[in-house]
Amino acid sequence: MFANTHDIHSQIRQNAEQLNEIHEKMHYNDYDSHRFFSKFDELAWPGGLNEGKRRLREGDPEEIEIAICFLEEDPSFYRSSNIKSDVIRILCRHPLSEAQKKRLGDAICRLVDTRLGREFIALGRLAKKIDNPRFRGQLYQRLNSDSLEIRQRAQTLVRAMQ
Fold it and tell me: Could you tell me if 150 and 113 are in contact, meaning their C-beta atoms sit under 8 angstroms apart?
């Protein structure tokens, strides 16, 4: 379906932009809500949300790669936090390579540095799954941040990993 992770990231960004544009138009009555929701499955996930989640539950390697890219990209659109929470819970059920764990650890650290989203609770389980000295060290560094919010988010994940 995709040649490389760059293509997946690009598709996720483009789809999120489209969903945000359509959602905004819907609020200004320039777009029918039925049309928005008919496009939602197609645009919320590369290859379609329902099909993607089905394949992800089955452990399809390509879908696992899309899930990791989705979390790395961290798109923001209507219901994206719910999708991320679902994806995190499903990813926790599958074996991950060390390279995949590293990428997920980096994505989690970016979230710790920037914001607290609805998916943050599920991130604790993922943090426990990908726990390794490098990732733990990244979180411990954040425990000394000047930002109280970053320290609190890092503390939450460190506790979840115990």
Answer: yes
The closest of 38, 110, 46 to 72, measured between CA atoms, is 110
Range of the domain at 81: 1-94
Rounded to an integer, what distance in angstroms lies between the CA atom of residue 19 and that of residue 17?
A: 5
Q: Are 48 and 41 in contact (CB under 8 A)?
A: yes
Non-local CB neighbours of 7 within 8 Å, separated by 6+ positions = none
pLDDT digits (tens, 9 = 90+) for 10-58: 999 999 999 888 878 777 666 667 777 788 899 999 999 999 999 999 9
pTM, 2 dp:
0.91
Task: Indicate whether 60 and 75 sit together in one domain.
Answer: yes
Pull the structure tokens for residue 155.
């503390």
